[in-house]
Hints:
The chain is of the alpha/beta class. The protein is built from twelve helices and 15 strands. The chain has two domains: 5-13 and 235-383, glycerate kinase, domain 1; 31-231, Glycerate kinase, MOFRL-like N-terminal domain (Rossmann fold, 3-Layer(aba) Sandwich), CATH 3.40.50. It has helices spanning 5-17, 20-25, 57-69, 107-120, 137-140, 150-161, 167-175, 233-241, 257-265, 294-306, 343-351, 355-362, and strands at residues 28-30, 34-37, 40-43, 48-53, 77-85, 96-100, 128-133, 193-199, 225-231, 247-256, 274-282, 315-321, 333-336, 365-366, 377-383. Helix 10 crosses helix 11. The protein starts with a helix and ends with a strand.
Amino acid sequence: xxxxxxxxxxxxxxxxxxxxxxxxxxxxxxxxxxxxxxxxxxxxxxxxxxxxxxxxxxxxxxxxxxxxxxxxxxxxxxxxxxxxxxxxxxxxxxxxxxxxxxxxxxxxxxxxxxxxxxxxxxxxxxxxxxxxxxxxxxxxxxxxxxxxxxxxxxxxxxxxxxxxxxxxxxxxxxxxxxxxxxxxxxxxxxxxxxxxxxxxxxxxxxxxxxxxxxxxxxxxxxxxxxxxxxxxxxxxxxxxxxxxxxxxxxxxxxxxxxxxxxxxxxxxxxxxxxxxxxxxxxxxxxxxxxxxxxxxxxxxxxxxxxxxxxxxxxxxxxxxxxxxxxxxxxxxxxxxxxxxxxxxxxxxxxxxxxxxxxxxxxxxxxxxxxxxxxxxxxxxxxxx
Length: 384
């Protein structure tokens, strides 16, 4: 089936707002030998290099490259390098693009990390590095601490993925076993001037935890780095609501999925309203779980709670991961209304954590492909 018109319209709106080029245009000004950013002036005596890490890396490097090439600084553009999740690259021969596995770390990621570092080390001390960071880098960029084998590292990563911990807690544990997290990547970068642009996928907007903070150590600041928050769930939701007269932001969630659903039951839309929320609800994954991710599981779980009450059966539920990926699936999320809800079937799939296959059967999976961004999940409720 095709999704209802209103659901398709919301999805298209979200995807249009996720394009990085429009965001960067409002932050940077480029001149012959200088970069202006948020009131600061950075001299560019030699070259400016673009390095991206995370699910949005290739899209962001391409957007920034195009901006510089259209400016008076184009003759100083040096290396353009991205390290991203597989199948998240762009068609651009001017960018050296590395691909790694996500969310489960593999030995190939270790090799790609070494290549990424070797390219960073080619920069000169007097060069300017623009480092474009988005979520997903915790699995991609990895080099274990001395004494830890790859198998031990992989087992720890998998344990954390299934733990039900929130992203801040998970990344604190990841930092403790890595040479390139928690500011560790700075040990391999020769540049004195580093501008880090952060696309934040952390509910509390703690940029030191995005991709486990390769350039930020919370306890020890490095004066070479100027970090700028360019996008977050909060900025996305504000832009979404500005286009709808009766839209309301509920919350940016950072709790268990069950707690999130209980809270959302107390913030349902009126007849005229559209209610939006961001962030993520954590879920402990069963050892024998079926197929699904946070977004599809939320939609089915919340529908199972919501549609018990006949007064709520006109509410439509939509949720999607803004990176275009929902867990280990090819979907970004799902849509449901009461006509697509089958109580017994829903319960069976929830118990198996197999929400993807429920929505596959109903024909209401949301598939966007890579979106150029990563700002956690967006959920939308409305009555119709």
